[in-house]
Amino acid sequence: MSAVAVSPGFTAESFDAFIAARNEPVWLKAMRRAAWNQFREMQLPSRREEEWMRTDIRMFKLEKFAPPSEAAAVAPNLVPSPLLSAGVDLGGAMSVVNGRFQEGRLAEDLARQGVLFGSLDTLVTQHGDKLEPYFEQKLVNSSADKFAALHAALWTGGTLLYVPRGVEIAQPLHNIAALVGANATGVAPVDLSKIMVILEDGASATLLSETAGDNAAALHCGSIELFVGSGARLRYVNLQHWGSGTWHFAHQKAALGRDASLQWTIGALGSRLAKVNQHVALRGEYANAQVNGVMFTEGRQHLSYHTLQHHEQPHGTSDLLYKGALQDDSRLVWRGMIRVDKDAQKTNGYQRDDNLMLSDGARADSIPGLEIEADDVRCTHGATAGRVDEEQIFYARSRGLTRKEAIRMIVAGFFQQVFDRIELESVREALGLAIGRRIREYS
Amino acid sequence: MVGLTTKNEANSPAMAGDIKNDVLTIKNLHVSVDGKPILKGVNLTVRRGETHALMGPNGSGKSTLGYAIAGHPGYEVTDGSAELIVDGTTYNLLDLEADERARRGIFLAFQRPMSIPGVKLADFLRHATTNVRRPERKEGEELIPMREFRKELKSKMEQLRMDTEFARRYVNEGFSGGEMKRAEILQMAMLRPKFAILDETDSGLDVDAVRLASQSIAEIGGADMGIIIITHHDKLLEHNVPDFTHVMLGGRIVETGGRELAEELHGAGYDRIRAAYPDAAAEEKAMTEKKQAAAAV
Ligand SMILES: Nc1ncnc2c1ncn2[C@@H]1O[C@H](COP(=O)(O)OP(=O)(O)OP(=O)(O)O)[C@@H](O)[C@H]1O
Ligand SMILES: [Mg+2]
Predict the structure, then answer these.
(1) Are B187 and A391 in contact (CB < 8 Å)?
(2) What pLDDT was estimated at residue A185?
(3) Which ligand 1 atom is the nearest neighbour of the CA of B74?
C-alpha cells in the first residue's frame, strides 16, 4: 500500500487528502468536514476555562503531530502483549497500531447471530445505514473542545461492537490500541481512534479495551461511545496504559435506555498527561450505571478526569467509585458531577473519590458536585485523601513484613474495594499486577 | 523448620537445655514518646519457656515496653539496652527494624490491633508466616505453597475454634473486640515466636473465650516460648501460671515476685505498691497530671 503524502501538522491539505482517500458514506464525510471546520475555528483550551484550570497543556505542541498515515505500521514484536485478556476465552479480538487497524477476529457463532465486531472504518462502509442513526446522535459532541473536533474530523482505527436485539454474548471481546515505534522511526505516532459499542434492546456483552505504548512522544485524541439499549447489559473495561510520552485527550460517553445496566471500569495508569471526560447519561427509567476507577500515577504524570452522572429519567441509579494512588510528583484531578434533571424523581446517585498519597510531592484534587433539580432524590458524595498510616505499617512489620511489603499490601488493600466490584478475575489480576509493579520505595 | 517444631520435640531433654539459653534481656531501658520520657529504666530478663506476668496501673508504661521491644519507630530508646540471644547468636535488638525482630522470633499481640482494609487475613498471614519462617527471604521470593499454608491455617483455626471463613475477612476490619484478640492469638500460633508479649489479649473476650485463649496460649507457647502476659485480670493466667510477676509503676518495674504477687494484686490492687515505692508513685502522679494539663490546654 502506498503512503498518502501528508505534510506535517493538521493542515487543510492533509485533511482534503485524508477525505479523498476514504471510501466512506457521504453523511460521514459531511460530518467530518463540519468537525474539521469547528477544529479550524477553535483555539486549544486554556487554563482560563474551568475544566482546564488545573491542567497545563502549554508544553503540548499540536504542530508536532500529523494524521496517522497508512505507512505507520511497525514490527509486530514492538506491540506489547495485552494485559486484560490473559487467560480469558475471548469471543473476538482486534488491534489498532498507531491509529490504524491491524487485525481482528470474531467467533463464528457470534457473527452468525448478527454481531459485528472489528474495524469501524471498514464496517461503516458496509453497514452505513445501520450505523448512521448512532453517529447522528453525536453522543460525544465534536464541539466540546478542539480535541473533540479534531477527533471527529480525522478519526481512524475505530473499533465497533454491535450486538443485535436480544443477543447475549457470554465470552468477553477484547481490543487493544498501541502507540509504538517512534524511537525507531523518529515520527511521533498518533492515534485518533474511536470505540463505538452498540447494544440493542435486551442484548448483553462484555468488552475489554486497553491501550499500550512506549515512552516516546505520542498523541491519542479519541472518543468512546457506548449505546446501551433498553434492558441491555454492558460490562465495559477500559485500561489506559499508554506510554509515559503520550498525550491523552478523550471524550467518553455512555447512554442508557430503560432498565439498561452498565458497569464501566476504567484503569488509568499510563500517559504523560490525560484529560478525560467520562459521562454517563441515564436516558430511560430504571437505568443503572456503576462506574469504577483505579488510578495509579508516578513521575510527573498528570491525569485529569471529569465525570458526569446525568440522570435524565426517574428511578435511575448511578454509583461512581474512583480510587487513586499517587507517587513521586504526579497529580490526579477528579471533578465529578451528579446532575439530576427535573423529571428524574427517585434518583439514587452516589460518587466517591479516594486518594492515597505515597509521596510528599504528589497532589490530588477531588471536586465533587451535585446539581439537582428534582425534589425526591437521594444523592451523596464523598472524597478522601490520605497517606499510608504509619501505625498500619508498623503492625505489618511487627509480623515480619518489610516496610515495602507492608506498603505494597496496604496499597493493594486500598484498591480492593474497587476490585470487589469487578467480577472478572482477569481484570482484577491485570490491574493488581500493574499496580504492584508500580509501587516503589515509600518514605 | 522452626514453625513445625512440636511441643514434644521442644521438650525433649536434648533441646530443653538449648532453649533455656535463648534469652531476652532488657537493661535500664529508657523510652520517650514525642520527646516525653515514659519508661525510666526498665530491667527484665525472660528466658524461653518462662511465663512472666506484667502488671501495673493504667498508664504505667506496660504497652510502651511492648512497643519498644517490638521496635515501634515512634518509641525512642534514649538509654539502656535490649538484647536477644537465640540459637547461640546475640542480636542487639535496638539495631534491628521491627520486621527483623519479628524474623528473629519476637511477637507482640497488640492491645489495639490495627485494621488493614482490603487485605485478607489469610493473605497477610501467609506472607508473614513465610517471612518469619524464612528469615533470610528476600522481597519477591516465593511464599509458602498455598495448599500447605491453608492446611496449617485451617488446623490452627480449628484449634482456636475459629470459623475458617474468618481468614477471608480483611485484617481486623470490622472485627469485634474479641475477634481481634482471637486473630492475634491465631497469628501467634502461625508465627510460633520465641518470645511473645501479649498486651491485654484477654480484654474484649467473653468468659468462655478467655478460658479458651488461656488454654490456647499455653498449648501454643508451652515450654518453648518466653511469654510476657500483660493483663489486668487473672483468667488468662489460669493455664499460664506465671513464673514471675512484675509490677510496673511510673515507668519502672518496681517489684518482682512469683505467682503469689499476681494473686495479691488481683485481690488487693496497687495501694501497697504505691505506698512502698513513693518515688515511682510520684512519677505516676506527675505523668497523669501533665497529661491532664496538656488536655486542658
Ligand atoms: N504514642 C503515644 N503518644 C503519647 N503518649 C503516649 C503514647 N504511648 C504511650 N503514651 C503515654 O505513656 C504512658 C504509658 O502508656 P502505656 O500505654 O504504656 O500504659 P499502659 O501501662 O499500657 O496502660 P493501660 O493499662 O491503660 O494499657 C501514658 O501516659 C500514655 O498516655
Ligand atoms: Mg496498655
Answers:
(1) no
(2) 74
(3) 1
Between helices B177-191 and B207-221, what is the axis angle to 10°? 10
Determine the residue of chain B that is closest to A415 in CA distance.
B118
Question: Per residue in B81-124, pLDDT tens?
Answer: 999 999 999 999 999 999 999 999 999 999 999 999 999 999 99
Question: What are the CA-CA distances from residue B218 to residues B10, B188, B194, B203 (Å)?
Answer: 14, 12, 14, 17
CA distances to A316, B109, B247, B260 from B266, rounded to whole Å, are 62, 22, 12, 10
CA distance A327 to chain B (A): 20
Q: What are the CA-CA distances from residue A202 to residues A164, A213, A233, A259 (Å)?
A: 9, 36, 7, 9
- Mean pLDDT, chain A, rounded, equals 93
Does residue B64's CB lie within 6 angstroms of at least one atom of ligand 1? yes
User: Ligand 1 center to residue B229 CA distance, Å?
Assistant: 17
**Is the pLDDT score of B11 beyond 50?**
no
Q: Do A397 and B98 touch (CB under 8 A)?
A: yes
Domain boundaries, chain A: 12-284
Per CB-CB distance under 8 Å, the chain B contacts of A410 are 116, 119
pLDDT digits (tens, 9 = 90+) for B124-156: 999 999 999 999 999 889 999 999 999 999 999
B266: confidence class by pLDDT, cuts 50, 70, 90: very high
**Taking 70 as the threshold, does the pLDDT of residue A107 lie above it?**
yes
Q: Is B60 in the pocket of ligand 1 (CB under 6 A)?
A: yes
Nearest to B108 among A398, A401, A416 (CB): A398
Q: Which one of the ligands is nearest to B110 CA?
A: 2
Establish whether residue B63 lines the binding site of ligand 1, counting it when its CB lies within 6 angstroms of any ligand atom. Answer: yes
Chain A residues in contact with B143 by the CB 8 A cut-off are none
**pTM recorded for the entire structure:** 0.88
Q: Which of A399, A414, A418, A440 should we substitute to test contact with B (largest number of B Cβ atoms within 10 Å)? A: A399
B-facing residues of A in 373-402 (CB < 8 A) are: 389-392, 394-402
Contact: A399, B128; criterion CB under 8 Å = yes
How far, in Å, from the CA of B242 to the mean position of ligand 1? 24
Taking CA–CA distances from B133, the nearest residue in chain A reads: A400
Q: What is the 3-state secondary structure (H, E, C) of chain B?
A: CHHHCCHHHHHCHHHHHHHHCCEEEEEEEEEEECCEEEEEEEEEEEECCCEEEEECCCCCCHHHHHHHHHCCCCEEEEEEEEEEEECCEEEEHHHCCHHHHHHHCEEEECCCCCCEEEEEHHHHHHHHHHHHHCCCCCCCCCCCCHHHHHHHHHHHHHHCCCCHHHHHCEECCCCCHHHHHHHHHHHHHHHCCCEEEEECCCCCCCHHHHHHHHHHHHHHHCCCCEEEEECCCCHHHCCCCCCEEEEEECCEEEEEECHHHHHHHHHHCCHHHHHHCHHHHHHHHHHHHHHHHHHHC
A399 pLDDT exceeds 90? yes
Q: Residue A441 has what pLDDT?
A: 60
Answer whether residue A166 shows pLDDT above 60: yes
The confidence score (pLDDT) of residue A67 equals 86
Atom 3 of ligand 1, nearest CA residue? B33
Closest partner residue to A399 among B73, B170, B187, by Cβ? Answer: B187
Neighbours of ion ligand 2 (CB under 5 A): B 62-63, 111
Tell me, what's the pLDDT at A7?
41
pLDDT at A73: 63
Nearest chain A residue (CA) to B136: A400
CA nearest A295: which of A399, A403, A405, A435? A435
Reported as a single tens digit per residue, the pLDDT across A41-97 is 999 999 999 899 999 999 999 988 988 876 666 676 777 889 999 889 999 999 999
Q: DSSP per residue over A53-79, as a string?
A: TT---TT--GGG--PPPTT----GGGS
